[in-house]
Design a protein that fits this description.
Elements lengths: L2 H53 L1 H10 L7 H19 L5 E5 L3 E6 L2 E6 L3 E11 L2 E10 L4 E4 L2 H18 L7 E2 L1 H6 L6 H30 L1
Length: 226
C-alpha cells in the first residue's frame, strides 16, 4: 500500500474522530444548558406561586374567621404580614445577587430562586421595574429570553452587557432580523433613549404602587371588620 495513502487515511480517521468528539461535547453542552433553563423556569414559577399565595393569605384567614375557627381580626394580622412579605418578595425573586459569570452570549447570576442564565443573543423583552424605599427609587431591568428565563439586572457590569446586546440587536434589525421589545423606560435607564421616558415611568410606578397598596389595605381592613 502506498505510504502516502496510508498516512492520508490515518489523518482522515483522526479528523473523523475529532469531529465526533466535538459533536458529542456540543450535545452535552446543549443538554446541560437545556437542563439549566428548565430548572430556572421551574424555580421562577414556584417562587412566583409562593409569593402570590402569601398575598392571598388574608382571604384564607377571612374564611377561617367566618367559620369561627380563627379570631375575627385574623385577616388584618395576616394582611399586614402578607403586604410586607409579598410586596418585598415579588420584585426580588429574580434579581441577581451575585453575578458570577459573563460570556459573549450569556449572563448568569444567583437569585433567591437559584441560578439563572439568560441568552443575550435571544432576548425577547426588557422592561424596567421601579420600587421605592427610604433611600429613593430602586430600579431593576427585567430581561426575558426566548427560553422563558427571566433575570433582574441590578449591577453596572450586567447593565453594560445588556446594553451591548440591545445595540447589537438594533443593528441586526436593520438587516431584517427580529429585535427584542425594550420599553422606553428601560432604554432611558440604559442611556439608549432620552431621560423623559424615565421620569414618566417613575411617576406612573409610584402612583401604581400607592394605589394598589392602598386598595389591598382597604380590602384587608374590610375583611377584618366583618
Amino acid at each position: 500500500m502506498n505510504p502516502e495513502l496510508k498516512i492520508a487515511g490515518h489523518r482522515q480517521c483522526a479528523e473523523v474522530r475529532r469531529a465526533c468528539m466535538l459533536m458529542s461535547a456540543d450535545r452535552k453542552r446543549g443538554a446541560s444548558v437545556e437542563a439549566t433553563t428548565t430548572r430556572s423556569v421551574t424555580r421562577a414559577r414556584i417562587g412566583s406561586g409562593l409569593a402570590v399565595a402569601v398575598l392571598v393569605l388574608p382571604f384564607g384567614g377571612y374564611g377561617l374567621a367566618r367559620t369561627g375557627v380563627a379570631p375575627e381580626g385574623t385577616p388584618i394580622v395576616l394582611g399586614l404580614l402578607s403586604a410586607i412579605a409579598g410586596f418585598v418578595l415579588l420584585p426580588a425573586l429574580c434579581e441577581e445577587r451575585v453575578p458570577f459569570r459573563h460570556s459573549s452570549s450569556h449572563l448568569t447570576a444567583h437569585t433567591l430562586t437559584g441560578e439563572r442564565s439568560v441568552d443575550l443573543n435571544r432576548i425577547t423583552t426588557v422592561r424596567l421595574l421601579t420600587t421605592f424605599s427610604y433611600g429613593g427609587a430602586d430600579r431593576t431591568l427585567l430581561v426575558r429570553d426566548a427560553h422563558g428565563v427571566r433575570l433582574g439586572i441590578t449591577t453596572e457590569r450586567s447593565r453594560r452587557k445588556l446594553r451591548r446586546a440591545i445595540e447589537k440587536a438594533d443593528a441586526n434589525d436593520a438587516r431584517g432580523a427580529p429585535r427584542p421589545r425594550v420599553s422606553r423606560a428601560a432604554r432611558a435607564h440604559l442611556g439608549l433613549a432620552p431621560g423623559r421616558g424615565l421620569v414618566v415611568h417613575t411617576v406612573l410606578a409610584f402612583l401604581l404602587l400607592t394605589v394598589s397598596g392602598s386598595l389591598y389595605v382597604v380590602v384587608v381592613l374590610r375583611l377584618g371588620g366583618q
